[in-house]
Specification:
Strand order of the largest sheet: 1-28-27-26
Largest sheet: 4 strands, antiparallel
CATH class of one domain: Mainly Alpha
CATH architecture of one domain: Orthogonal Bundle
Number of helices: 17
Helix content: 25-40%
Shape: elongated
Distance between the termini: 51 Å
Radius of gyration: 38 Å
């Protein structure tokens, strides 16, 4: 005991000695300070980058929702009150047609009168389709003469010059007394002409003329036909579509008519009741939509819808509230579904039929306005009064976009009912814009659902087994192997899913369904079998035998299900799953469907969910599990009631990060689905996501155009959705952490 006694003073003195002073070098202090600055700068840069991205996206999409501007310009003197106006395609010249058919063309660059043509015989009435360069004159002799203004371009002397010419196109004989004509209209092409007159006795006279040129002899053969139909009492407005197949009419009582003009005569009409007297009528570009201006200043858009094999119906698709006085004139744009409406009080309105947007309303600057014209480019308009024509500058960048057009149901031309449709291009400027983001948003959620349907159970349960049950020696191999899956390129997964998995899954789909049902059962059976083995026997087995046994059961069961797929198909689906699906549910089986895409996307999401979930489960203090087991709880009770609640913040974060990964996936969706923008919940059909749509459309979108900015709006939606989802996930995770940590 003596040595110990000798040590006591030394230990006591050592414990009482003051601690040695620690001195930090100035270099280390500067390094620490610089590290803090670098970390702070990095964090600020990340936040600034996110804010800059958001600002950029908002700046690119904000012009979509700006209204139009219409500014009054110069006043141009004219010879007399114009009955109709026609504008040169580049708005360089303006033609006015007087009530007697007198034509005057003025140069808008200050060149004055460049053409003055008087008709051989004064016309009794003039008919002109807005936006068309041709017009019809009704003479006292009952003949309808169609003239057209041809804007010929020459390059004499190295400069571009426009030389207008007014030439007759065709002449048609109505065969009636012109004094009995209440309203008339006509359209003519070099090969086909049609003239229509509504008489005071309620009858309708239709005269057509067709001509064919012999390709060998050059001889022209003409054929004329005349038809008389009844049922046109009170008709005061007439319009013929550009293809001369449909005749539209309206009366003062608010009724709208549509007759079909065929080689064998006039058929119909389809009759619709607007409820308000019609004072103006015009066809939009393409000739399918009919705009009606009413006596109360309101406007409505109509088109024909096929309700059966041989039946059509004239339906009201869009409407606009009153702009004031009765509508006197309408002028459609030549490059979209925009149109101008002129009121009897001189008020003017600019509208878009598809988006149902009131783009602008204001004064035209002409009190006694009589005629209206919209330039082909849509950047200028002209309003004619008794002694002047007012030029208007129009700025309307994206009229086809509105919240209802982007997300609501829109009744498009040739559609039986309102629908949500994405169709960015239609092949010509006459096609109606269909820019609904609803199918793309639905496709994004649909793809995310099926990806998480496979990824969450496999990722979370796999992480649970790996962290809580698996032998630590086996964990060192399994965890890196699963995490390496995250390095697989999306394009490779999409390629394999689209070109390898999809056609094979189509052949064995009944077996695939059986494998999905049998998978959990086989996994439980493998676990029960391993647990039933004697302990002295299992102790001699190598590490990971239970995993290998489960894998054998799962792979063997899946192979057997696929092998027996023809048997399942004959037993449950009549020998043809695709035919059974079509007959039983009306759905079709698309080889590149949501299930194929979900399986492929799950391969990309599982490693992320697994890694975060496993880390969260592994970070649960072992003392909690040990305490639970010491109190008599079973292993499963401990996992379910102790480990899972404690790790729930991390598990929730894993699911939300997996959600963000699935929402933003592009290449897999692009290659593994039919890439069709449909709102269809069937798992056997494809879909298109917002991200895939951006990848498909952005190379063809003109910079600054409507499609270009709508794609940026899609990117903004993705940004907001992921930002909000991550923000909510962080709030929920923090609440769960506080709840189960006791703080």
């Amino acid at each position: 005991m003596e040595p110990a006694t000798r040590l006591e003073p030394r230990l006591e003195s050592a414990s009482r000695a003051p601690p040695a002073a620690t001195v930090t070098s100035r270099a280390r202090l500067w390094v620490d300070r610089a590290a803090r600055w670098v970390v702070a700068a990095g964090g600020i840069a990340v936040v600034a980058s996110l804010v800059a991205i958001l600002v950029f996206l908002v700046a690119q999409t904000a012009p979509l929702f700006r209204g139009a501007r219409v500014l009054q310009g110069r006043a141009l003197p004219v010879g007399e009150a114009a009955q109709a106006l026609a504008v040169e395609p580049h708005a360089l010249q303006l033609a006015e047609i007087a009530a007697d058919g007198h034509i005057r063309v003025y140069a808008l660059d200050g060149g004055g009168l460049v053409l003055d043509v008087a008709p051989a015989t004064p016309a009794r009435a003039v008919a002109h389709a807005p936006g068309d360069s041709a017009f019809a004159l009704l003479g006292d002799d009952g003949r309808v003469r169609v003239h057209a203004i041809d804007w010929k371009v020459s390059y004499a002397g190295g400069s571009r010059a426009v030389v207008p010419e007014a030439a007759p196109v065709d002449e048609l004989e109505l065969g009636v007394d012109s004094s009995q004509v209440r309203a008339f209209t006509a359209r003519a092409t070099p090969t086909h002409s049609t003239a229509v007159a509504a008489l005071r006795d309620g009858s309708l006279v239709v005269v057509t003329k067709t001509s064919e040129v012999n390709a060998f002899s050059g001889e022209r053969a003409e054929k004329s036909a005349r038809s008389v139909a009844s049922g046109a009492e009170g008709v005061a407005l007439l319009e013929i579509d550009p293809e001369q197949r449909v005749l539209y009419a309206a009366d003062a009582g608010g009724r709208l008519f549509a007759w079909e003009l065929g080689p064998d005569g006039v058929h119909g009409p389809d009759v619709a009741q607007s409820g308000v007297p019609v004072t103006a009528l015009s066809l939009l570009v393409g000739g399918r939509s009919l705009v009606a201006g009413h006596a109360d200043g309101s406007l409505s858009v109509w088109f024909r819808v096929r309700t059966g094999r041989a039946r059509t119906e004239l339906v009201r698709a869009h409407g606009f509230d009153s702009q004031g006085a009765a509508i006197r004139a309408l002028a459609p744009s030549g490059r979209g579904r925009s149109f101008l409406a002129l009121g009897a009080d001189g008020a003017l309105g600019l509208y878009h039929s598809t988006s149902e947007r009131v783009l602008w309303r204001g004064a035209s600057g002409v009190t006694d306005a009589r005629a209206l014209a919209f330039a082909a480019r849509g950047d200028s308009a002209f309003v004619a009064g008794s002694r002047e024509v007012r030029e208007l500058t129009v700025a309307s960048l994206h009229p086809e976009v509105s919240l209802s057009a982007l997300f609501g149901r829109v009744w498009y031309e040739d559609y039986p009912e309102p629908a949500r449709v994405w169709q960015s291009t239609g092949g010509s400027e006459e096609s109606e814009p269909k820019l609904s983001l609803a199918p793309l948003a639905f496709g994004t959620l649909k793809g995310t659902f099926y990806a998480l349907f496979f990824a969450i159970p496999l990722g979370v349960l796999g992480a649970l087994y790996t962290s809580q049950v698996m032998d630590p020696r086996l964990q060192r191999s399994i965890k890196p192997a699963v995490e390496i899956m995250a390095s697989l390129p999306s394009v490779v997964l999409g390629f394999l899913a689209g070109l390898w998995l999809a056609p094979r899954l189509e052949k064995v789909f009944p077996g695939f369904l059986a494998a999905v049902v049998m998978g959990p059962i086989l996994a439980l059976a493998a676990g029960a079998l391993y647990a039933a083995l004697p302990a002295r026997f299992t102790r001699r087995l190598p590490v990971g035998t239970e995993v290998a046994l489960s894998a054998v059961f799962l792979l063997g069961g899946a192979a057997l299900c696929f092998r027996l797929s023809p048997l399942f198909e004959r037993a449950f689906f009549g020998g043809d799953f695709s035919a059974w699906l079509r007959e039983a549910t009306g759905a079709t089986y698309d080889p590149r469907n949501a299930i194929v895409a979900g399986v492929a996307m799950a391969f990309a999401v599982i490693p992320i969910v697994f890694a975060i979930a496993e880390e969260s489960l592994s970070n649960v203090p072992r003392t909690l599990s040990a305490a639970s087991l010491a109190l008599g709880a079973t292993r499963w009770q401990t996992i379910a009631r102790v480990v899972l609640p404690a790790a729930s913040p991390g598990l929730f974060a894993a699911i939300m990060i997996g959600f963000g990964r699935a929402v933003g996936e592009t290449m897999i969706v692009l290659m593994a689905t039919g890439n069709t923008p449909l709102i269809d919940g069937s798992p056997f059909n494809g879909f298109r996501t917002l991200s895939a749509n951006i990848a498909v459309e952005i190379p063809e979108a003109p910079q600054g155009a409507t499609l270009y900015r709508v794609l940026f709006l899609s990117a903004l939606l993705l940004f907001v959705v992921t930002f909000v989802a991550n923000g909510l996930a962080d709030v929920v995770r923090e609440r769960l952490r506080r709840r189960y940590s006791g703080t």
